[in-house]
Amino acid sequence: MTTFASGTDTLTRDALTVLQPGFTGTTAPDWLLRRLGEGLASVGLFGRNITSPEQLAALTAQLRTERDDVLVAIDEEGGDVTRLEVRSGSSFPGNNALGAVDDVELTHAVAAELGRRLAACGVNLNWAPSADVNSNPANPVIGVRSFGASADLVARHTAAYVTGLQSAGVAACTKHFPGHGDTAIDSHHALPRIDADESVLLERELRPFRAAIAAGTRAVMTAHILVPALDRDRPATLSQPVLTDLLRGELGYTGLIVTDGMEMQAIAGTYGIERGSVLAIAAGADAICVGGGLADDETVRRLRDALVSAVRSGELPEERLAQAAERVRTLAHWTAAGAADPRLPADEEVGLRAARRALRLTGAGFTPLTAAPYVAAFTPVANIAVGDETPWGLAAELARLLPGTETGSFAGEDAGLATLAAAGPRRIVAVVRDEHRHPWMAAALDTVLRTRPDTVVIEMGLPQAPPRGALHIATHGAARVCGRAAAEVIAGA
Hints:
Elements: H1 10-17, E1 19-20, H2 30-38, E2 42-45, H3 53-66, E3 71-74, H4 95-101, H5 104-120, E4 125-126, H6 151-166, E5 171-177, H7 198-203, H8 206-214, E6 219-222, H9 240-250, E7 256-258, H10 265-268, H11 273-283, E8 288-289, H12 297-313, H13 318-336, H14 350-358, E9 360-362, E10 374-378, H15 395-401, E11 406-410, H16 415-423, E12 428-432, H17 439-451, E13 456-459, E14 471-474, H18 480-491
Parallel strand pairs: 1-8, 2-3, 3-4, 4-5, 5-6, 6-7, 10-11, 10-12, 12-13, 13-14
Antiparallel strand pairs: 9-14
């Protein structure tokens, strides 16, 4: 039987219900279990909470001993952003690779298998997919997390992903509304602004969200972006015109609205998390995501008390908070009811098949390598969404096929010369990530290719720069399976 809050009034219980906090460690701390008993309905998991599928299943079971309908959420996009496989790299190639293949049945199958694995571990809400149209190639935070730069392509694959994921009984949370693709600033660090006309937004940014809603997405995540055409004053997460008038009213969405992480600087550095949370609920959001950076009981208490105080002062209508809490409970009921398709089979290799199909090769007459090469990874600073603990590249996969393969990581203005010195006589495989966004990376490739024109170049980000090298492979993502697929081509496996 579901454990309801005991010893707490309805207002306080509702304030806890709308929070989606995180925590540290691989078992649930006592404070979190206590809050579940008091009314907390959701918990967010991150890479720091996961060591194996077995451990994750034990953790979610522990949470459900306190509340059996708890929403257990995770940021598992596959591809570059993975929590299930944070220390090994993902078994799924990610959105941009799926968009490059452009087979909606494949996207559905990938999402269904990802959902099946999440459900098997007790996770029932996934903060995915990204429905952002990556119309700005300089975007520092979306990039390969997007299906592509075409609104139509992104829309059809978003819909396929939503239906695939939810066929496994895992609620999809389509993000980042109203669209984070046309930005050149990472909202983890500051508040981005999109100056597109409303007509452009309707045709480009909103089309994938319309498709997601039509596909039945159970949740939508907001973007911490300022869109003056929709609201000149407040970012989307805090905007009634965006969340209530547009998303609820014009688009007819009735499911759960979840904020992006409130500790991100776009909100925390401008409004503060307490004030931001109150404004978000007042604007129409139903759940407050917090816990990627702030992950303790004090954060939960601060946000709970801010919401309660706002209701008591008249700033936040009590019925709006109650409505938000009810939407959280409605989603929890959907997941607890067991909506998975019982016919859903396991498909362990679907991610690798997708990664292989996503490869784009440029260069004639390439002969696969038979001797162990030197793999030079030109490594940019990872954005916060991706994190720097997840390995990327293809050195490990290539070493499996060509024993003796050596590797090094390089960055900065001397990266090219350092690569030549480290490689010696070995054939060089240069691995880049978004070469078009990093002048030092392009210069390093210039240096290497002038001396070693037989170098193989692997682009594991967006393939925007002109392809070059004896062979150029665009993987459309840096997941482990993307590296394996590229390594198979290089070694002729």
